[in-house]
Amino acid sequence: MSRPAADTVRTAPERRTVLVASDLDRTLIYSAAALGLTMPDDRAPRLLCVEVYQSKPLSYLTETAAALLSELADRSVFVPTTTRTREQYGRIHLPGPPPRYAICANGGHLMVDGESDPAWHARVRRALDADCAPLAQVRARMVKAADPGWLLKERVAEELFAYLVVDREKLPGTWVKELADWAGPRGWTVSLQGRKLYAVPRPLTKSAAVAEVARRTGVEHVLAAGDSLLDADLLLAADTGWRPGHGELADLGWTAPHITALPERGVAAGERVLREFLTHTGRD
């Protein structure tokens, strides 16, 4: 039997009773450094590259995970939910039909059929202007306090938030807390993910954008997964959620009554997350 067109699949309400909102990096997809392949080489899983950057492969999932994700896209409203910019997200080519909805810039852009929804973005901007210190002030504080001995790069993402790329081994243990203590009263959240240290306005959340997608699609049951502090609001707002055995949340021992802390780490955690999603969408 031929597969229905992607648009037909997306709009069939009887097959869309669950919304699945998942973080991408270190939750579903993994860089070579984050794969966590601890088994002998001859037992390592086959990998599928889903992102190329500067003509080099960058992000992967297992072939098993790719098949699971394709099935999940047929059974749910699947919403990639990432802190990546729109440009960075555009490099990713996940298995299955292109998701109708995606969330970029930690909720700053709600993508609909590949385009940012201008009304949503304007709403986000108003909230940031009303409740948070200006981006320029926070960026200046981050750069001024950073030491060139461990600061590798500094970037602004979508004129919404700032981040530093750091040498983790040289980053002082107290620096992140000191920045967080300064940023908190000014309406900003600090998160360290791998080599990236983010400063993000507190109203800029994945959960708010996911709630908007749920409103538009009429789906009431939300599943979610993520590994970092920037995913905590998403997980708390979901009906059921999972976090991998690695990452910022795992390091903190973070959990909640409806969140399952998985033991798997690395790319194996991505497989496990997808299996859990499918189980909770009524997979036979």
The gist of it:
One of its GO terms (molecular function) is hydrolase activity. With 284 residues, the chain is of the alpha/beta class.
Spatial gap, N to C terminus = 19 Å
| Estimated share of beta-strand residues | 25-35%
Count of distinct strands:
15
SS-based class: alpha/beta
| H-E order | HEEEEHEHEEEHHEEHEEHEHEHEH
Helicity level: 25-40%
In DSSP terms (H or I, runs of 4 or more residues), the helix count works out at 10
- In this structure, how is the largest beta sheet organized? 5 strands, parallel
- Cα-atom Rg, whole angstroms? 19 Å
Let me know the average pLDDT. 93
The gross shape turns out to be: globular
List segments where confidence is low: pLDDT < 50 over at least 5 consecutive residues: 1-15
Q: In what order do the strands lie side by side in the largest sheet? A: 5-1-13-14-15
Protein name: HAD family hydrolase
Organism: Streptomyces chitinivorans
Keywords: Hydrolase
GO molecular function, one term: hydrolase activity
Please give the structural blueprint.
Layout: H1 6-10, E1 18-22, E2 30-31, E3 47-53, E4 56-62, H2 63-75, E5 77-80, H3 86-90, E6 101-104, E7 109-112, E8 115-116, H4 118-131, H5 135-145, E9 151-157, E10 161-166, H6 175-183, E11 188-193, E12 196-201, H7 206-217, E13 221-225, H8 232-237, E14 240-243, H9 248-252, E15 259-261, H10 267-279
Parallel strand pairs: 1-5, 1-13, 13-14, 14-15
Antiparallel strand pairs: 2-4, 3-4, 6-7, 7-8, 9-10, 10-12, 11-12
